[in-house]
């Protein structure tokens, strides 16, 4: 590179000075919008889909949604922009009871109720008809309130107030298995790979292996376990005792509690993971962000004026719901210090649960109303 004042032509010569593979590694550290306009050589280099894969995985956490990584990158930017700028299609429909849980999965919404009903609603049917009265597929065999729900491609699992976990095969009316090792209400449940992980009012977490039928017991919380998340070999659990416990898988394939975060004197109701941070929702309406590695609080905000009933995130979008009749959409900011920026407020009614994916939001109420929002639109449409 010549000494003295550097011209733009000299800058372009970097294409000749660096091997293509080295240039590719340099580009990975930049953003597409930073390098594409520089010159035609750099623009051509950005047509490499391997490079777009790196950019996509650096910015987003979900799987690619389009055929190429470049298409997926711009599609996710489009969806994120709609979440932030309040552009969505909205349709509401009704159940006939207090809805306790909801789950978005492959063009369906699965709900549970205080009356013990489990219903699977087909979104294509609901969205293609003009009436709000759609008949769901109903799973039978449960009596009493259902506190928690999860599903995958083949199974639905629920936990209820009698301490029983029930397993259904998808689209089969009657349950196929019943697990009775909890002694009190089951408040949270997850299907992760071949395991069912559950937390209960009995203060215990169970990890049940669907293949071997073995179960592992995790003890440590002094009050009800309300939320569970998992990342690789690490399990996170929150409790009404105001703590979040971090459990790591040891070489005996057992979980050891390696960290106990003293979050609050108030109950920790919900937790979600964002990169190296833990986002928690407490009983008094606060949302806090904790650095997992440093084990310290980095951000706190009073997000709601009442009990927080739902907390979900994807990429850098966080959604919270509350008994204060509001659903709030937040942008997780990471420039400088991590924090939350409120970008949208949905004024609804007493919201008991929510679920989201990259382009959809569903939230349900104590009145049995199901609010469905789709952000894959050019402009807002309310039906």
From TrEMBL:
Protein name: WD domain, G-beta repeat
PANTHER family per record: F-BOX AND WD REPEAT DOMAIN CONTAINING 7, WD40 REPEAT PROTEIN
Signal peptide span: none
A Pfam family that the UniProt record links to this protein: Beta-prop_TEP1_C
PROSITE patterns per UniProt: WD_REPEATS_1 (PS00678), WD_REPEATS_2 (PS50082), WD_REPEATS_REGION (PS50294)
Family matches, as InterPro entries: Beta-prop_TEP1_C (IPR056828), F-box-like_dom_sf (IPR036047), WD40/YVTN_repeat-like_dom_sf (IPR015943), WD40_PAC1 (IPR020472), WD40_repeat_CS (IPR019775), WD40_repeat_dom_sf (IPR036322), WD40_rpt (IPR001680)
Domain TEP-1 C-terminal beta-propeller per the UniProt entry, residue ranges: 304-373
Coiled coil region boundaries: none
Organism this protein belongs to: seawater metagenome
Alphabetically ordered keywords of this record: Repeat, WD repeat
């Amino acid at each position: 590179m010549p000494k003295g004042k550097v011209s733009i032509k000299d800058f372009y010569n970097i294409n000749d000075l660096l091997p293509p593979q080295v240039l590719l590694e340099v580009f990975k550290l930049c953003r597409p919008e930073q390098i594409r306009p520089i010159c035609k050589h750099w623009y051509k280099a950005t047509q490499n889909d391997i490079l777009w894969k790196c950019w996509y995985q650096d910015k987003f956490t979900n799987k690619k949604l389009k055929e190429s990584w470049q298409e997926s990158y711009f599609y996710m930017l489009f969806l994120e922009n709609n979440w932030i700028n309040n552009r969505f299609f909205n349709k509401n429909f009704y159940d006939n009871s207090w809805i306790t849980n909801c789950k978005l999965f492959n063009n369906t919404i699965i709900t549970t109720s205080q009356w013990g009903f489990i219903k699977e609603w087909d979104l294509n049917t609901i969205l293609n008809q003009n009436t709000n009265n759609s008949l769901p597929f109903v799973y039978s065999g449960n009596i009493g309130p259902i506190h928690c729900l999860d599903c995958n491609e083949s199974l639905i699992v629920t936990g209820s107030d009698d301490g029983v976990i029930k397993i259904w095969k998808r689209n089969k009316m009657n349950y196929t298995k019943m697990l009775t090792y909890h002694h009190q209400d089951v408040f949270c449940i997850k299907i992760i790979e071949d395991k069912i992980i559950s937390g209960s009012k009995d203060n215990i977490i169970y990890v049940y292996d669907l293949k071997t039928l073995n179960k592992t017991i995790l003890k440590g919380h002094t009050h009800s376990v309300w939320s569970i998340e998992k990342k690789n070999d690490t399990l996170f659990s929150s409790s009404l005792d105001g703590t979040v416990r971090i459990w790591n898988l040891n070489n005996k394939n057992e979980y050891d509690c390696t960290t106990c975060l003293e979050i609050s004197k108030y109950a920790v109701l919900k937790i979600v993971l964002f990169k190296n941070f833990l986002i928690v929702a407490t009983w008094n309406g606060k949302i806090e962000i904790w650095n997992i590695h440093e084990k310290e609080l980095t951000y706190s905000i009073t997000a709601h004026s009442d009990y927080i009933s739902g907390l979900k995130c994807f990429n850098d979008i966080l959604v919270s719901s509350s008994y204060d009749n509001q659903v709030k959409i937040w942008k997780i900011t990471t420039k400088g210090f991590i924090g939350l920026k409120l970008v949208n407020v949905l004024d609804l009614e007493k919201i008991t649960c929510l679920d989201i994916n990259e382009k959809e939001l569903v939230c349900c109420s104590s009145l049995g109303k199901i609010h469905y929002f789709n952000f894959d639109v050019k402009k807002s449409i309310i039906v």
